[in-house]
Amino acid sequence: MKSDPVLLEIGFEEMPASFLLPALDALGEGFLREAREAKLLHGPMEKFATPRRLALLIRDVKEASELTITQILGPSVKVAYDAEGKPTQAASKFAQSHRLEPKQLQRVQTPKGEYVAAEVRQEGQPVVPLLSAIFNKLIHELRFRKSMRWADVRFSFARPIHWLVGRWGKEAIPFLCADVQSGACSYGHRFLHPGPIALAEVADYEKALFEAGVVASFETRKERMLVALREAAKGAGGELLEDESLANEVANLVEWPSPLLGEFKAGYLDLPPEVLISEMKQHQRYFALVDGQGCLLPKFLAVSNTPVKDVSLSAKGYARVLNARLADARFFFDEDRRKPLASRLPMLERVVWLQSLGSYAEKAERLRQLSCFLAREEGLGEGIADLDRAALLCKADLVTGMVGEFPELQGVMGREYALHSGESREAAQAIFEHYLPRSAQGILPKTDTGALLSIADKLDNLCGLFGMGKSPTGAADPFALRRACLAIVNICLKKGYRFSLRKAISAGLELLESKWKTYPGFKGKGVVEEQILAFFENRLRVLWSESFRADFIDSVVAVGFDDLSWAQERLQTLHAWMQSGELAVLVGLSKRLGNLLKQAQGAGPVDSALLHEEAERALWQSCGALEKRLEDSWRQRKLSDYLLGLSSLKLPLERFFEEVLVMAPQEEIRSNRIHMLKHIWGWFTRMADFSRIQIEH
């Protein structure tokens, strides 16, 4: 069967960098899905994206989709044939429904007996009309955060489409999208090769574009750019300040990356480094340079979309724009420092956080109380003065000129202005750290003061928004509550905090009590508390699923995760025992205990005088000898020792199960035996619900 490569290219006006890769992934996944459903045979797929195009190149696409033969069961043989072996009406109608004669039906043996079956053949579809329909569907399915329309067409896309290419080898794949008909020509770089490119061979797509001034592969383009940036930085006597997110963005802003070295006025180096980096990155998409000690140099690297003819002229142009931005930053920095940070607190009363949840001044007061509550729960009372002060001031920089102009510097400027105002270094650092982590994989707070304030801030967000019924949905999380929840979990795990999550949530909701009295949609403190705990459970499962088996996670979560650090320690210990035969013993004992106690009601003390059988007396003696060891192991957080202690009950428990009738006819003896087993069961469920663990044999 003939096979050739297939090319789909969508050409458009320059698309925002953040739109490109998600759209490319959606396009690739969509093609694989449609090809799978259509039984289209093909080889590997390559994906390409530049600011002006999205493209798929699929190798070895066969000339027709796969022939499929499906066997469909009909009535049983007893129903399909009469006593003389002739087809009944049931067999005839079944055959007719599949365009067959009754004699073409087959007999097949199934677990339920012998049945008749129809073998249905579906011939493969020709590749060109099949791909024509698939391509049109894929383009119409693409979704963007913002779309637009053009001319008088009703179709919308991120940017107007200018050309389409559909090819199977040398054969065209015709399809129409909006007002654009697919053709055989691509287009090169807007300035280096603005004319059409006739693609002689589809397989040479990437090479043809490269010759026309376009590096089509995002990965290749990014790597070429970084290599050139590092060489240019080295030539300037410094090192490139690596920034993955900036590299991804800039690589999707250009088709032919050409780095250019520039310099800004050295006098601006006395501004906070974060200000300089933010200005270069957020507003100009420049890369910063540092010396061997990591200190910023008064130099930057910009990336042009074309090789620059007059380097010095272009460098001056880039520098002029940056210097103007830094002059603005200098003005705001100097003006803001004219008065202490604390003097801005009254202004927070006029800045609304959320309409139903009050101002930032009210939020800061809640953060003072909640963060100090957490500190006391952790036994960190010595640092409460700094924590209290940091919580009071943590939002004050929102009303400064610098943060008003450059919002991404909130927290950074709060730290700088706090130090300038004479606040303690601990409090100033906490003001900065309470915004951490700034992204899902961002750095976490290092100080306890910053960590506790960060937790309090995010917990206040969760309590406030869940109380208003604004929890995340499957499609949207506009307030980044998933990230806030995960940040709390990661901070607690990193710092080893042991406070009760339930108590912390309850405290956060109580601080908002005055707001709920005026909010008609509030469902009640208990309901919201359970919703937030369920939200934490879901985030924990997602986080732990990257490293642990689902059944181990289930077993730990089932007995509680109120102490996040302790729950993870239990999970890690179980995981470490995964290959141990002792774990299988614990699982077996736990399941047997659970089955016995499933219907048992109540619990009480064990009366040793009612232990008549030798096996039950031996078991109770083993429990007495073991109890102190288990309590010591638990208190000292030696969980492997704790599990070893539990596994030592194997022999006395097995003997008990073999020789003792738990459900004795005498009620007091039966209850006493159940109380003993419940006592043992409590030791198991303290660690995990072992019955949920699947042992692989």
Explained architecture:
The protein has 697 residues and is α+β, with helices and mostly antiparallel strands. The protein contains 27 helices and 18 strands. The protein has a 5-stranded antiparallel β-sheet. Strand 17 and strand 18 form a beta hairpin. It is flat, with a radius of gyration of 34 Å. The relative contact order is 0.05. The model has no long low-confidence stretch (mean pLDDT 92).
Key descriptive features of the protein:
697 residues; flat
- In spatial order, strands of the major sheet run 2-3-1-7-8
Helix proportion: 40-55%
Number of separate helices: 27
* Average pLDDT figure: 92
Structural class: alpha+beta
Oligomer: single chain
Largest sheet: 5 strands, antiparallel
Would you count the extended β strands for me? 18
- Shape field: flat
Question: Measured on Cα atoms, how large is the radius of gyration?
Answer: 34 Å
Uncertain regions: pLDDT < 50 for 5+ in a row? none
Report the portion of residues in β strands: 5-15%
- How far apart are the termini? 46 Å
